[in-house]
Amino acid sequence: MAFLEVKNLKKKFGNLEVLRGIDLSLERGEVLAIIGASGGGKTTLLRCLNFLEKADEGEIVVNGNSVYHAEAGKRPEVSLEAQLSFGLVFQQFNLFPQYSVMENLMLACKLREKKMKRTSLMKRCSKLLFKAGKLCRKVKGAKGGPAEPIEGAPKPNDIRSRATELLKTVGLSDKANAYPCQLSGGQQQRVAIARALMLSPEILCFDEPTSALDPELTGEVLKVIRSLKGSDRTMIIVTHEMDFARSVADKVIYVADGVIVEQGTPEEVLVNPKNEKIRSFLSVLKKDDGES
């Protein structure tokens, strides 16, 4: 059984069908590169996988567990556990300008801890109410035992240690107290990558992570992404960097008009594509690279 399975994912905005039935699967630790012209549905696919958008139809299965299953016209709620399975690095960094680099990294973990505490408290209250039966009106004044431990909730010192470790991983140990405005675009994107890793997602997604960077800064970001390969983390990368896709990806899919037109190994899709759309797309990219 594949680690990640996406089955017949569909998404509409009004009358516009952006995803018209996406099916794909990945093994744990595999890297998938998604290529295609703008407007084909690549970013919407990543947003649906990260639950920033809810697919109208389809199913997402992670490690054998169905984390999202939408029937036509019915979009279910998404659990915290499902949300934490995925991480997303955006095109435009999306760092909080009022927070330092360290604060940007720690914020997501702190918010998760608060949400887990709230969820744990709600569960505990439900148990008390159930046990109290007809006396539930007195529960408010009852003195209960200590709160149940929150499994997986990191302590503040652990969060800071994790952030420090990840800043070292992306080569920015000396920027912990800097603010986003004091960093180059490449440094900001590396901070964004570290932030996405803070919650230890099983599947890390990148939405054209170098599209907002000058060419000289692209290499440092791609180097960090390449270093994550082989860490048993599954990655999905939307990119126009064909050389990078060829070197880092295990699989490549070409998406156009909301469907997967072709998929296979980098050699099959990027070097010997069968579909004329892909050949035309790659030809345009080569022409643009030659003119730049």
CATH architecture of the largest domain: 3-Layer(aba) Sandwich
The total strand number stands at 10
Mean pLDDT: 86
Integer tally of domains: 2
Termini, distance in Å? 44 Å
Largest sheet descriptor: 6 strands, mixed
How would you sum up the global shape? globular
Radius of gyration: 22 Å
Strand order of the largest sheet: 6-7-8-3-9-10
Class derived from helix and strand content = alpha/beta
The percent of residues in helical segments reads: 25-40%
Description:
The chain has helices at residues 42-49, 80-84, 101-132, 156-169, 185-197, 215-228, 242-248, 266-271, 276-291, and strands at 4-13, 16-26, 31-35, 57-62, 65-70, 86-89, 203-207, 234-238, 251-256, 259-264. It is an alpha/beta fold. It has two domains: 1-85 and 201-276, P-loop containing nucleotide triphosphate hydrolases (Rossmann fold, 3-Layer(aba) Sandwich); 96-200, no CATH class. The strands form two sheets. Strands 6-7-8-3-9-10 form a six-stranded mixed sheet, sandwiched between helices. The chain has a four-stranded antiparallel sheet with strand order 2-1-4-5, with helices on one face. Helix 3 runs parallel beside helix 5. Mean pLDDT is 86; it is low at 119-123 and 128-153.
Q: What topology does this entry show?
A:
Blueprint lengths: L3 E10 L2 E11 L4 E5 L6 H8 L7 E6 L2 E6 L9 H5 L1 E4 L11 H32 L23 H14 L15 H13 L5 E5 L7 H14 L5 E5 L3 H7 L2 E6 L2 E6 L1 H6 L4 H16 L1
Parallel strand pairs: 3-8, 3-9, 6-7, 7-8
Antiparallel strand pairs: 1-2, 1-4, 4-5, 9-10
Helix pairs in contact: 3-4, 3-5, 4-5, 5-6
